[in-house]
Amino acid sequence: MTQAAVSEDVWSIKRVLTWAADDLRRRGNDSARLDVELLLGHVIGLDRIGLIMQSERPLAAAELSRFRELFKRRRAGEPVAYLLGAREFYGLSLRVDGRVLVPRPDSERLVEVALLRTRARSMLGQALDMCTGSGCIAIAFARQRPTWNVTASDISEDALAVARDNAHRTGAIRNLRLVGGSLFAPVAGQRFDLVTANPPYIPAGDIESLPVDVRDFEPRLALDGGPDGLDLVREIVKQAPAHLTPGGLLALEIAFDQGPRTADLLRELGYQDVAIAKDLGGRDRVVSGYGPP
After folding, report:
1. Under a CB-based contact definition with an 8 Å cutoff, are residues 195 and 243 in contact?
2. CB-CB contact of 92 with 178 (8 Å)
3. What pLDDT digit, counting tens, does each position of 39-57 carry?
4. What superfamily in CATH does domain 3-76 come from?
5. Residue 126 and residue 79 in contact, taking contact as beta carbons nearer than 8 Å
6. Which candidate, 43, 62, 253, places its Cα nearest to that of 35?
7. Where are the domains of the chain?
């Protein structure tokens, strides 16, 4: 057997990455190279620098088989975070799977707004995070405000199971409790200095046009916000005053084109100092305001 014939049978790290990235790129994947680097690194236990340093290393048969399995699922559109079983959010590694939305970097803006606009009472407070999903917002806030008591709620028991696991793994469980139910129902009669939510806000008619990894894999319950995307936003804005302490803050994540409409909803109901915060791409992302007097 010639040397050329042997090399054709050898799948090195470099060769696998090049082939797999080209394949995904041809299918319209804008993050093809990053995706395959993350998947292969996950399989063989190397970070991206390690993949470069060991680019000529051949893959063992078991490694190649495992990578191919994950790659086929990514090719079909399954989110990388689900394939890896984890996603970083606000410096924390959180477990995620098909029971919850994949935490996005833009959602970190909600944490930042919540921290900034409650800094006057940073030592002690009560916070509620609704539609918590993986628990990313509640956990990040609880870690930053360890002297606060944080409650996280979701209508999905499956989502709460994921959030509970993440709360234990990150240590946030010390000042975080999780409750099941719709919006404010599980906390009837309670008041909070901060209420946050990343509710479903995609207009129902737009869901079919979403990228396949969102449309076909992420939970529809966490996406569908009704005809104009604001069904739950309206309910939260309407119900929140009965659950806010004097001067308490409501902060909501919204779609990039829902900022002015959501801000108007808050102002119409008497919320004070209403503000719109932009995300990393300069788009409207968080609307917040202090409860009516």
Report:
1. yes
2. no
3. 999 999 999 999 999 999 9
4. Ubiquitin-associated (UBA) domain (1.10.8.10)
5. no
6. 43
7. 3-76, 99-290
